[in-house]
Amino acid sequence: MPIHLPKTPVMTDSLFDQDTGGSPLAVRMRPRTLDEFVGQRRAIAQGSPLHKLLQPGDTDTKSSVILWGPPGTGKTTLAQLIARAGSAKFMELSAINAGVKDVRDVISAAQDNKSLYGVSTVLFVDEVHRFNKTQQDALLPGVENGWVTLIAATTENPSFSVIAPLMSRSLLVTLSELDDTDVSSVISKAIIDPRGLNGAVTVNEEATQMLIRLAGGDARRALTVLEAAAGVALSNSHSEINVDDISAASDHNVVRYDKAGDQHYDIISAYIKSIRGSDPDAALHYLARMLEAGEDPRFIARRLMISASEDIGLADNSMLQLAVAAAQTVALIGMPEARITLSQATIALALAPKSNSAYLAIDNAIADIRQGDIGIVPAPLRDSHYARAGDLGHGIGYEYPHDAPGGIVAAQYLPDALKTTTYYRPTDRGTEAGLSALWRKIRTLLGRD
């Protein structure tokens, strides 16, 4: 877990050398080398800017970095590994409680280390987005003059929360949530490692999956719950951690839900069918079950976008806009706040008028194509923008609708084989009722009726 400085900054050769015997499991298991680091394969890939920073060498040549990503994805660890790679002093400030004076004191100490002893300094600023403009400005001299290699961590988009001069002097590295395999690896190692639980407990498969879901891509959260669950299991005189131990340790009810199994498909199916059935209470129930079980909120948001077109469609076109906005919001803010956005969208879609006319129309059209009912494009509709197209009759007889009264001319647009076919059949629900009346008038003008 982050080690925040008091008001007077503290400098250490390396946080790896500190005694962590009484520290939480997440601190004890903090990777000491790049080989122990789990996740972020793209960010630390061979040849990437971050990989170069992590290689042993002179810190003077290293660039400052802004690490942007969710909690528990390795930002603090990467800062420490960069410091260790350059044999630098490691100093840390928490933007939560540090002020301008603290920043200036750290920069001054780093300057002295550089000029008097030739020792470089890595300054890690956690939650840098919490620094105001004046506090961020105070970092600039140290970064610009190379007195410190700044490693700034943020969970918010730095384009909006970090000043432009600091952004321009730093590399931006985006970190992602750990995937299930990464979290499983972190858990497995913590169980057997002497720094961790040293084999005192085991975790059965169902409990492991629950830990992974509760972690939500956050390694620190996974280790925190694992340590608490181990305490519950051992106090109850058994060494195999089960879901009840995890539930007791995390104050989190056991939600049996396999993201790759029947529960996943059954519950998302019930969720969508409840929205289709206009029951917001049932839809919210299934939404809550998925969220509490650790389902990816982005998956839920994608299903809402599908529902907005499949089940509501032209009855209320604004629901697709709302679902898209919800998906974008969920991707930007993440959990737990995303639950509110998903709730808003769920209720709105459940209460919206329903129409599956767009869904049926395209499926019926595709069915005809697959059966070979295609036909030839009418000559007036063919491309006439090439030499001798007119000789073939292409474009001849085409009437430009914008030149006609009302913008509609009586013309045949479907191939001859399908000229009487109807795919779109509007409902009389919601705003589509108005479209239905309009479509009947248009069909008459087109000569379709």
UniProtKB/TrEMBL annotation:
Keyword Nucleotide-binding attributed: yes
Record-linked SUPFAM superfamilies: P-loop containing nucleoside triphosphate hydrolases (SSF52540), post-AAA+ oligomerization domain-like (SSF48019)
Gene3D superfamilies hit by this protein: 1.10.8.60, 1.20.272.10, DNA polymerase III clamp loader subunits, C-terminal domain, P-loop containing nucleotide triphosphate hydrolases
Recorded GO MF terms: ATP binding; ATP hydrolysis activity; DNA binding; enzyme activator activity; single-stranded DNA helicase activity
Every AAA+ ATPase domain range: 61-177
Keyword field: ATP-binding, Nucleotide-binding
UniProt GO BP: DNA synthesis involved in DNA repair; DNA-templated DNA replication
Record carries keyword ATP-binding: yes
Alphabetized CDD domains for the sequence: AAA, HLD_clamp_RarA
Similarity comment: Belongs to the AAA ATPase family. RarA/MGS1/WRNIP1 subfamily.
Protein name per UniProt: Unannotated protein
Organism of provenance: freshwater metagenome
